[in-house]
Every structure is written in C-alpha cells, then in structure tokens.
Amino acid sequence: MEVKVMKNILGENDKIAAENRKLFNDKNILVINLMGSPGSGKTSLLEKTLSKLAEKINVAVIEGDLFTVKDAERIERQNVPVVQINTAGGCHLDAAMVRRAVESLNLDELNLIIVENVGNLVCPAEFDVGENFKAVVLSITEGDDKPLKYPLIFKESAVTLLNKIDLLPYTNFNLENARADLTTIHPNIKIIETSCTTGAGLDEFCDFILMEVKKL
Ligand code: MG
Ligand code: ZN
C-alpha cells in the first residue's frame, strides 16, 4: 500500500519536474539542486560564491527551509534575487514547490538558478525538481561513513563538495576512504574539496558552474 502511494507521488512529481526542465531549457537557464545535511555549509558556500558568479552571469537562488527565512536573508545580503520556500516541516523540496517559486523570478534575465534544498541526506535525492544536475555537500565533520550510509544522494549527484576541508586535521575523517567510497557509488562523480574559511576550492566550484552554464 505505502509503496504504491509513494510511486504515485513520484510519478506526479516527475511530470511536473519534466515541465520545469522544459521551461528552464527554453529559457537557457542552468538549474542546480544543492543538497546536504543541516550544517554541512550549503548556505555558507552560496554566500562565498554568489558574488563571484554574479560578476559573470545572472544568478538567482531558491531557498528551501523547514520554517525560517534565515538562509534567504543571508542570500539577500549578497544582492542576488532569492525566493523562499517554507515547507512547514516538509523534509524535501518537490517539483511543484520549485515551479511556484520560479513564478516570482524573471526567467528572461537569468542564466543560473541554485536551489538550496532542505537539509537532509535522504529524500531530497528522490525528488527531481527539474534541475540540470544535483550537487551534494558533505562536510568533514559529518564523518567519512556518510557516502556508504546514504548512497542514493551521492549516486544522484554530479558533484560532491567535501566541505570544511580545513578541519581535516582535527577529525578522524579518512579522505582517501571517502573518495574511494564516492567513486565506487558513482564512478564519474566530481569531487571538490572546499572551505568557506580558507577559500579552498571555491574558484574550482565557480569555474565548474560557469563551464556548465556555457554549455547551454
Ligand atoms: Mg542553509
Ligand atoms: Zn522528505
């Protein structure tokens, strides 16, 4: 019974996601679905990269959050258009929420939309929102066992950002093991080591995004 309900929900979501994808494609907009645990550093990564990106392209952000506007306020300070989605406790964004959110953006003026999903390593991976690709943030402080424990999100993501890499010496996170596990789960996954404190990897992340925008 529950399996059937879930299948129907996902089927309906896929339909709307396909409509979103067509819309983004028609407007030549790259859409990234940014996922990761609460506290992995998704919003901080955006804060540190949006101004670099905005020098070259027109970018907007959709902020998914359970209840607050805290992250959207942080993005707004970067002078980038931002739309807040409050899921009222819902643990992931779906395609319909993103469709409603983009109604308040001027799609003719945009090259890139970054969707910051609700902090969660599980179900955001199951819901296509019409993005070009998913990216997942895994911070060093979460532990190197996460790829094997939550394989779907890493399998679905084109990029993994190993964030807070500056904290590596203070943890027992085994970088070699984590990289090996990620590559086993997803052989072509791109891995970027980042730190919002030292700035490591941020240019690489921006360059990767800009290259993907150029490909459209
Ligand atoms: Mg956040
Ligand atoms: Zn969920």
In short:
The chain contains 8 helices and 7 strands, in the order H-E-H-E-H-E-H-E-E-H-H-E-H-E-H.
What do you see in this structure?
The protein is of the alpha/beta class and 216 residues long. The chain is 41% helix and 19% strand. It has helices at residues 2-26, 42-54, 70-76, 95-102, 146-149, 151-156, 175-185, 202-215; strands spanning 30-36, 59-65, 82-86, 112-116, 133-139, 157-163, 190-193. A seven-stranded parallel beta sheet has the order 3-2-4-1-5-6-7, sandwiched between helices. β2 (59-65), α3 (70-76) and β3 form a beta-alpha-beta unit. α1 packs parallel to α4 and α2 (42-54) packs across α8 (202-215). It starts with a helix and ends with a helix. The model has no long low-confidence stretch (mean pLDDT 97). It binds magnesium ion (MG) and zinc ion (ZN). Magnesium ion is lined by residues 42-43, 71, 116.
Q: Please count the helical segments.
A: 8
Low-confidence stretches: none
Q: Rounded to an integer, what's the Rg over CA atoms?
A: 17 Å
Q: Please bin the fraction of helical residues.
A: 40-55%
**Main sheet: which strands, in order across?**
3-2-4-1-5-6-7
**Class computed from helices, strands and strand pairing:** alpha/beta
Quaternary state of the chains: single chain
Helix/strand order: HEHEHEHEEHHEHEH
